[in-house]
């Protein structure tokens, strides 16, 4: 066997401490390099969607994306932004004036929807995206939500759905119960996968969800 002295143990512990400190410092440096702090509402400087992630570079305030769905080539890397939100195969950027700077992604999953065509330049309190669309809470307290009216699934009860008629069953995906008029909401959150699209709103100081809407079994 090997004979290990107390000085050897102290040396190995010291080496371990140095390595731990170095790794921790590198992670802190990486996080500081990529991500900004402090954004309004429920938005973030980092988000992930279906097989991709995006972040804001702290050195330039510009977005960068990596992963699948060709998002790195779709996102306008010359835009200066404050916050991001991702969902499904799409990403939205919000600038320092809380205005929507860009909304990009794959066709059929939100950006090409007719209700999304006038979003650029809109001032928001909050915004969020789901797999099929999303919702924004405007600065005046009104809500705009969008998503496909129809998706195509392998069967009427299947959750395996596509935006085009490559599958045989056309399923009504129209949003219902979307809040109308001026609200006192503080923020919005959206979710869902291929089989559904839902959003909810919350209000500061109010326990629980203030409002809930969606499509396909909401």
Structural features, described:
The structure is a single chain. This protein is of the alpha+beta class and 218 residues long. The protein is built from 2 helices and 15 strands. It has helices spanning 6-34, 71-74; strands spanning 46-48, 52-57, 62-67, 83-87, 90-94, 100-105, 124-129, 134-138, 143-146, 150-153, 161-162, 169-172, 187-191, 197-202, 211-215. The termini are far apart. Mean pLDDT is 81; it is low at 1-41.
For the largest beta sheet, what order do the strands appear in spatially?
A: 1-2-3
Strand content: 25-35%
Number of helices: 2
Number of strands: 15
Q: How does the helix and strand content classify structurally?
A: alpha+beta
Mind summarizing the main beta sheet?
3 strands, antiparallel
Shape field: globular
Question: Which short descriptors sum up this protein?
Answer:
about 220 residues, alpha+beta, 3-stranded antiparallel β-sheet, globular
Helix/strand layout:
Blueprint: H1 6-34, E1 46-48, E2 52-57, E3 62-67, H2 71-74, E4 83-87, E5 90-94, E6 100-105, E7 124-129, E8 134-138, E9 143-146, E10 150-153, E11 161-162, E12 169-172, E13 187-191, E14 197-202, E15 211-215
Antiparallel strand pairs: 1-2, 2-3, 4-5, 5-6, 7-8, 8-9, 10-11, 10-12, 13-14, 14-15
């Amino acid at each position: 066997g090997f004979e290990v002295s107390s000085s050897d143990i102290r040396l190995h512990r010291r080496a371990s401490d140095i390595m731990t400190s170095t790794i921790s410092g590198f992670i802190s440096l990486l996080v500081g390099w990529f991500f900004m702090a402090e954004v309004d509402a429920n938005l973030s400087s980092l988000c992930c969607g279906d097989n991709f992630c995006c972040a804001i570079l702290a050195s330039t305030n510009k977005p960068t994306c990596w992963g699948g769905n060709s998002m790195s080539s779709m996102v306008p890397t010359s835009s200066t932004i404050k916050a991001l939100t991702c969902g499904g195969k799409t990403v939205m950027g919000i600038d320092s004036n809380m205005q929507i700077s860009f909304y990009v992604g794959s066709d059929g999953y939100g950006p090409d929807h007719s209700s999304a065509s006038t979003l650029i330049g809109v001032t928001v309190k909050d915004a969020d995206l789901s797999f099929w669309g999303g919702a924004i809470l405007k600065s005046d307290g009104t809500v705009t939500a969008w998503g496909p009216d129809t998706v195509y699934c392998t069967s009427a009860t299947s959750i395996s759905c596509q935006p085009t008629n490559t599958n045989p069953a056309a399923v009504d995906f129209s949003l219902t119960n979307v809040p109308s008029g001026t609200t006192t909401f503080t923020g919005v959150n959206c979710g869902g996968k291929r089989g559904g699209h839902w959003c909810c709103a919350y209000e500061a100081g109010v326990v629980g969800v203030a409002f809930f809407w969606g499509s396909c079994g909401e």
